[in-house]
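Complex record, two chains
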Amino acid sequence: MAELTVTRRYDFPPEKVFDAWLDPAVARRFLFTTSKSEVVVCEIDARVGGRFNIVDRREGQEDIVHVGEYLEIARPRRLVFTFGVPQFDPTMTRVTIDIRREGAGCELVLTHDDVPPEWVEQDREGWTMILESLSRELA
Amino acid sequence: MLDTTLTALADPTRRAILARLAAGEARVTDVAAPFPISLNSVSKHIRMLERADLVRRRVQGRDHYLTLNPKPLDEAADWIERHRRLWTATLDRLDAVLQEDDHG
């Protein structure tokens, strides 16, 4: 099961950090874009079952269309959505954002996995570790 | 492709087979020996690994030799690395955006 986790601390309350992901005016400045590109479409239907469509344009390159659907919206603790870039790969993956209050700020843990739901209960051993140790052995 | 790789890896017996082959080429019978399941069951796992192109088979006389093909593993590791970079940059940008709004 491919799974990766990235953790980050913010000096802002959980509500502010959470809302950034669902407010198109804020999201278009950080989500699915880079310092060298610009979001030209940012549609967010912020309800469970609602979809997003974020198009990033980079000078002289094909537009990159990011799509997905919201699976869970529990402000300000948890946001779960599917995510894919159909022009590169038809698979949809899943992103889970957990936000925990910490003093005046918060800690955000983002988990991205490409595990189809039917696998989830199958095998919870972190194969990432095995993959990494195998890669090390092969290197 | 990544899906096939991950399905192949989502089983402890198959991971053990890969770990064994990471040490070098081995005969099917030798690979199967440590497992408390039938040669037939191990063969099914091996065929699944072959379909995922994680394992390749070479036949010499009556012996079948297996080797590990690391390329799909590299691709899976690459997927993880690429997305780790994507999200690290995204979370950093989010911080920059919040700081900007706070000071602006």
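Note: Chain A touches chain B at residues 1-2, 4, 6, 8, 10, 12, 16-17, 20, 26, 29-35, 91, 108, 110, 112, 114-116, 119, 122-123, 125, 127-128, 130-132, 134-135, 137-138 (CB under 8 Å).
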